[in-house]
Write a structure and sequence with these properties.
Shape: elongated
Number of strands: 12
Strand order of the largest sheet: 2-1-3-4-5-11
Order of helices and strands: HHHHEHHEHEHEEHEHEHEHEHEHEE
Length: 360
């Protein structure tokens, strides 16, 4: 395939570092062609190589060594980093599905995952040394807390990375420009609460995730409030995405508001705990209290009593998409030339949908 060179006026860009996009525009070629010139590949015509090199010199462009490492695949290994206790990762079906999707996509690209756990603060220097030691070509990070130092470490290392979940931005903080994959948490929560309201439920409670630490939890609470802006604060109970958290939160809600007739629970795992408490309190589901969860984790949602109505998100697919986005860094598409992925450095929010079973 030939590529026509369309010369454009180029100059050094004051105030910021020139990018691969700038070189491509100045040369009149695609970013993938610029990458091939930088990497010394021999499938580019001599006049194109000359023009690209001229523009690189004119702009003062310095290739990002970390991005080049990902494109050239020196290690064929990708770090998968989770800031969670190791035992929770292997118990919670959410993480199992997420890791399964990541692994499938990495293997499809000829790369192997290197799984790193972070449980205690003293482990961060060790992980930082590993990530900066040239052992991996990039990183996929998920289950990070708002105050997690790992994103800052990744930025300083210049390691190509994709994050699982939208970064939580507090009031007054600058917005992050990191690449992430997330579900439409707010829209999914709205759908769940509207479903409960449409059934005539008048006192709809919610059990949230850790809203001070994870954007998904805050988004799901915002979705609840979008539908019920005047809901009593007594109908809101904060928790932590664990089954025991669902038990404790449902107990607190019933003690405080025994008249509640529905509850939107921000995860299936918490919903399974909430259903246990309702059963112990002799509340019939859905007759007395309707319950809707979030995640659609089959091992949980299909086997609760009754089966759980919940919001579906494609957890395995999001894991695959994280890896696909990582391989799109520094090029116009996936490194293997296979199925298309969103453009490089573009975050993605995937759709959600309600799955109606017997709990609501």
């Amino acid at each position: 395939m030939t590529e026509t060179v369309l010369p454009q006026q180029t100059r050094r860009l004051p105030g910021r570092r020139p990018t691969l996009d700038d070189v491509a525009r100045g040369s009149g070629v695609s970013k993938s062609t610029v990458s091939r010139v930088i990497n010394g590949e021999d499938k580019v015509r001599a006049e194109v190589v000359e023009r690209v090199r001229e523009v690189i010199d004119e702009l003062g462009y310095v290739p990002n060594s970390a991005a080049r490492q990902l494109v050239t695949r020196r290690n064929n290994a990708i770090a998968v980093v989770a800031s969670q206790p190791q035992n929770r990762l292997f118990i919670d079906p959410f993480f199992d599905l997420h890791l399964r999707g990541i692994r499938k996509e990495l293997v499809a690209h000829g790369a192997q995952p290197v799984l790193l756990f972070l449980e205690e603060p003293e482990e961060y220097p060790r992980v930082g040394d590993f990530l900066g030691g040239g052992h991996v070509d990039g990183a996929l990070l998920f289950s990070l807390r708002a105050d997690d130092p790992l994103p800052g470490m990744i930025d300083r290392l210049g390691l190509p990375a994709v994050f699982g979940g939208r970064p939580l931005v507090r009031d007054g903080e600058p917005a992050h420009d990191r690449v992430y994959v997330d579900a439409d948490n707010r829209g999914g929560a709205r759908t769940a609460v509207r479903h409960l309201v449409s059934q005539g439920r008048e006192h709809v409670a919610t059990i949230t995730g850790p809203v001070d630490q994870e954007a998904s939890a805050l988004d799901r609470l915002d979705g609840y409030r979008d539908v019920l802006p005047d809901a009593s604060p007594l109908l809101v109970e904060h928790s932590d995405y664990t089954r025991q958290g669902g038990v404790d939160a449902m107990t607190a809600l019933l003690d405080r508001r025994p008249d509640l007739d529905a509850v939107f629970v921000a995860s299936d795992l918490m919903a399974s705990g909430a259903l246990q408490v309702l059963r112990e309190r002799s509340r019939r589901v859905p007759d007395d209290v309707a319950v809707v969860g979030f995640d659609d984790l089959a091992p949980i949602a299909e086997h609760t009593d009754p089966p759980l109505t919940t919001v579906h998100q494609d957890i395995e697919g999001m894991g695959r998409l994280m890896a696909r986005l990582l391989f799109s860094h520094g090029d116009d598409g996936p490194a293997d030339g296979g199925a298309t992925a969103p453009g490089p450095q573009s975050s993605v929010v995937t759709p959600t949908r309600l799955v109606v079973r017997q709990s609501a």
